[in-house]
Amino acid sequence: MDQELKLAELKARLKKVIKRSVYIYRVDCGGCNGCEIEIFAAISPVYDPERLGMKVVSSPRHADVLLYTGPMTRAMRLPAIRAYQAAPDPKIVVAYGACGCSGGIFHDCYSVWGGADSIFPIDVYIPGCPPTPAATLYGMAIALDLLQQKIKGEQFVEREVTRVVPRYKGVCPDLARDIEREARRLSGYLHGRRIAAQYLEFVREGDPLAVDRKIKELIKQEKDPRLAEIFLSLHKIYMQKVERVGRNAG
Amino acid sequence: MLKLLRKALQVGEATVEYPFKPMEVAPGFRGKPVYDFSRCIACGACATACPPNAITMDCDLERGIKSWNLNYGRCIFCGRCDEVCPTGAIALSEEFELAAARKEDLYCQAKIQLCKCISCGEYFAPCRELEYVLASLEQAGLSESGHEGWKQLLKVCPECRRRKAAVSAAGALGGTGRVPGGRQ
Q1: pTM score of the predicted model
Q2: Is the pLDDT reported for residue A7 higher than 70?
Q3: Preceding omega of B158 cis (within 30 degrees of 0)
Q4: Among all residues of chain B, which has the CA nearest to that of A94?
Q5: How far apart are CA A158 and CA B41, in angstroms?
Q6: From the list A98, A162, A184, which residue is nearest B76 (CB)?
Q7: B72 — phi, psi (to 5°)?
Q8: Residue B70 has what pLDDT?
Q9: For the segment A87-109, what is each residue's pLDDT rounded down to a tens digit?
Q10: Could you say which of B104, B106, B112 has the minimum Cβ distance to residue A101?
């Protein structure tokens, strides 16, 4: 316990001292190499971490920071421990990527122990699959106490029952679903949702004739022929639905 | 030397000033999934879709609480939760600065109340989900008169509903104690 306190104190002193020359050693414990590629992108001149003094070294004996990437696999457990023991105290241990933080998508594989935190005390977690170079720089800045942490654990509790209303008010859910499905089929979930929302905004007003006129105007004005095509096919669905309802009523 | 300097000045700076200036990300960047508690109906679609099980759901039938957990440390930012969410409660943002010193800061948790069955008194489904179903039915053109009936029906668990349906069917068939087609 006494030794631990001493180590923590040493680590705090280290953070003050090494601001301008941080030697980083990477340990890949069995990842997919996505993280390595991002680390190499991060040490390129575009992000240039050497202006902050960060340098990737090839021996753990030189390292101040150990960067563990990949899930902790059974085969790489011992080399990972050896690298940890080879690095001089005090050292900063960083878990890099979703796999390094908690095992990531491989967390329930037969040979995976979990993240790097299953073996070592971790100072900083850098989530991401893989973390972008900017996220890498941010994580290193957190490890060296240059920047403030932004993310916080969140907890929500429902005290009394609250209502959640459907997203498109005044639109039949069946129609909304069909429109959304078609829009997503044609243009992916991200743009599909936006396009469906734009279309259903017109439908909300109700009167089919007015909707028809407005949509036709929109299609005429649309400069992007792909978008016009999508709107047209959405409109077809709407018109079919309206016709069917009309026939049933008649 | 001067030639080189001139060239360097012509080309300009390639390095981004990221830690000292905010970073602009590309449109459609898949960053931190942000959870909107007020829109969640605890249907579990995101937990089913999540490939690395970063989103998990637990049901505590003793206390009547369904809990929703998101672990950013395990999330692979694929956006499937965003894609499948029927109410738009979870959406990817452009935030990428997720590094944390403590593991607890990587968790997002929500607790949602379950509804009690009015027939057997067991917890069975989130209240919010039932309310959402009712609101959807209203929008689809449920009449005022049918409203109350549906409200009562939604508060009965599937098990009890099945039993009731069986009892009423048996009653309709054998009201006089005879089975049609049977011997008299």
Answers
A1: 0.84
A2: yes
A3: no
A4: B101
A5: 11
A6: A98
A7: -65, -25
A8: 93
A9: 988 889 999 999 999 988 999 99
A10: B106
